[in-house]
């Protein structure tokens, strides 16, 4: 299969490659060499940056699969640790392998005592994403970047990240750190480190444990999104695993990406505080008033529905029922979703609720503060980032990521000597 390019009267055959789900791409690797041209695709909406066998998304049909398994089935039958293993190592673990992996994930939850001192230097209002990015990069100064330590470093980051995150929260509320307990599951261990205090144990309600497990799984990978592409970008220079993850955390922080879950709750709260007139808010969005967007809506890839949002909406109803609580923000979110889905503005642009629309409402019900929401996203996305980093390290065709540009600045001009160097 080839595609033809006609340029300045000359024909060029460009190979077309096909993926295992019949997705096709024009291979332009030799385009510049053969024609002198580059392609122009700001935001990379039409550019495949790699071949990958980790996650498949069909945005038109609302399909998401990890390693070939539909997200709905994975979410129903797996725990997060199994999903971590499967994403990173390619296949579901045998039972003995899974038990060993889970054991390792609990044995490595402690952080070096010296790292606790780092927390002391942050002001009380420091955003936990800033702390997370710094702490994860700092792990590289404690654990060497040797090939034979890679599997161990993977376990270390997966295990320690929740301790780092819980400590960041404890720092923000001025409470003593709670150390991990190795008999607990990943979500229960994390929630206990968040909410227990030394004088008082905290038994994690099963409904919270299950909800957290679901949220982590739904966030675990999403192919070449902004933070994962950052992970690959940084990893392409040969940077170590911890440094690459730290960069991915920073990319995730933005409100158009993982920061949207915090922005959704702030938006809902603001509408509610101003009397709950969501129709007026939607009018502002449609008019594009000062760049107002409906946070938690829209996606680069999903143009029908986001399967993760669908699962979370159902989960939100279930969790609220089980807890017997009634959050006015959940009701407001549902009304906004219904109204937006019948508005031409949203229908025409194929804007649907994404994973961030309902996740924050569930975190809120579990008592997780708004500023920690994006940290929760990061904890869930870790196995995806690691899987992509590993895939890239092993890919013989991978090169340093170095896009081109179309220069639009001044043409050559003379830099006159105005004597400024001597000032
Ligand atoms: N509210 C209002 N209008 C929107 C929205 C929104 N949430 N999202 C897109 N649009 C409009 C946009 O103004 C544009 O309209 P027009 O064609 O008239 O200029 C059109 O839809 C296409 O938008 P775009 O910005 O070109 O789309 P994109 O693919 O570059 O951006 C997005 C995708 C997710 C950044 C965007 O939809 C957005 O900003 N959503 C709100 C933030 C959000 O919820 N982010 C979480 C994404 S899912 C979790 C994750 O993976 O991070």
Structural write-up:
- The protein is mainly alpha-helical and 423 residues long.
- Helix 2 (71-77) runs antiparallel to helix 9 and helix 8 (186-195) packs across helix 9.
- The strands form two sheets. A three-stranded antiparallel sheet has the order 1-2-3. Strands 4-5-6 form a three-stranded antiparallel sheet.
- Among the domains are: 2-48, Rubrerythrin, domain 2 (Single Sheet), CATH 2.20.28; 69-254, Citrate Synthase, domain 1 (Orthogonal Bundle).
- The termini are far apart.
- 52% of the residues lie in helices and 7% in strands.
- It is globular and about 75 Å long.
- The mean pLDDT is 95.
- It has helices at 31-35, 71-77, 80-89, 95-107, 113-120, 128-142, 150-173, 186-195, 206-219, 226-235, 241-253, 260-273, 278-287, 307-323, 328-341, 344-348, 355-365, 373-394, and strands at residues 2-7, 10-18, 24-26, 55-58, 63-66, 69-70.
- Bound molecules: carboxymethyl coenzyme *A.
- Carboxymethyl coenzyme *A binds next to helix 17.
